[in-house]
Amino acid sequence: RSLQLSGGEVQRLNMARALLERSCLQIYDESTSALDQFAERQILSKLSEHKDQSSTVLWVTHRYWSVAPYVDWVVVIESGAVTYSGSRYEAEFDSEYVRKILEISRHGAT
Asked: Which long-range contacts (CB under 8 A, 24 or more apart) does 36-43 make?
């Protein structure tokens, strides 16, 4: 009998492995897409606790609101072009795309 892991379990194992390796560059490409919101928050919180100045973490996600509290810099790419690059704090004021996403996340899609 083979061991079957869910998509979320595989994602959690891969992120734990990345934490243990402590590489200078970590790339998470839609790494929390198979997780529920509770598990996603727990993992992102834990990852941010291990954040240090000697490593760079790159998050690729369609769910900006889920990673926003844990990032310093935001790059928004729309239709293959960079439409915003700046601090997370400025993104909420300077990026129309980020403002739309935050509005939808606060009030739900209509």
From this structure: 36/8, 37/66, 39/8, 39/12, 40/66, 41/66, 43/12, 43/15
- Distance from C-alpha of 37 to C-alpha of 22, rounded to nearest angstrom: 25
Question: Which of these, 55, 89, 84, lies nearest to 72 by C-alpha position?
Answer: 89
| 56-60/25-29 β-pairing | parallel
CB proximity list for 99: less than 8 A, separation 6 or greater: 92, 93
pLDDT for 11-48, tens place per residue?
778 777 877 777 788 888 887 777 788 888 887 887 77
pLDDT per position as a tens digit, 40-85? 888 788 777 767 667 788 888 877 777 888 888 888 888 898 888 8
